[in-house]
Amino acid sequence: MRNGIIPASWTPALHALLRIVTGLLFLEHGTAKLFHFPVAQGPDSLPPMLTVAAVFEVVGGALVTLGLFTRWAAFLLAGEMAVAYFMAHFPKDFFPLENGGEAAILFCFVFLFLAAAGAGPFSIDASRDK
């Protein structure tokens, strides 16, 4: 019996799709900072803290996309986004719409979900668990 618009049988595939899309979007933030691809984001020479954040975004985004060490990577990335929010956004204003922190909050909580739920199907983690 259906209780919703999308059948419950789609849940595993949508879990994997959420992980892959989130990982790719996060990876893109890192490549924009480090390699100025697909667009330049930030100065040519990043301060040390932003360089570390960009490396987390590239490496962590790739791990989440592939579904490799997903729980650990997602946990670290959720922490990175919480720190980023409170350091870069919250001091500007209380409300995320005003301080530009919506993406940081959303990434934080999606990564927190993935840290708890794991990679799901279509992942290296799932194939290693067999």
Q: Span between N and C termini?
A: 30 Å
Determine the fraction of residues in helical runs and give it as a percent range. Answer: 55-70%
Count, helices: 6
Number of domains: 1
> How many strands in all?
0
Low-confidence stretches: none
Percent of sequence in beta strands = under 5%
How much is the radius of gyration in Å? Answer: 16 Å
Which structural class do you get from the secondary structure elements?
mainly alpha
Largest sheet descriptor: none
Mean pLDDT: 94
Give, in order, the helices and strands. HHHHHH
Shape: globular
Question: What is the strand and helix layout of this fold?
Answer:
Elements: H1 11-34, H2 48-66, H3 70-89, H4 96-99, H5 102-117, H6 124-128
Helix pairs in contact: 1-2, 1-5, 2-3, 3-5
Question: How would you portray this structure in words?
Answer:
The protein has 130 residues and is mainly α. It has one domain. 68% of the residues lie in helices and 0% in strands. It has 6 helices and no strands. The longest helix is centred in the first third of the chain and has 24 residues, at 11-34. The mean pLDDT is 94.
Summarize the structure.
The chain has 6 helices and no strands. The chain is an all-alpha fold.
List keywords for this structure.
130 residues, mainly alpha
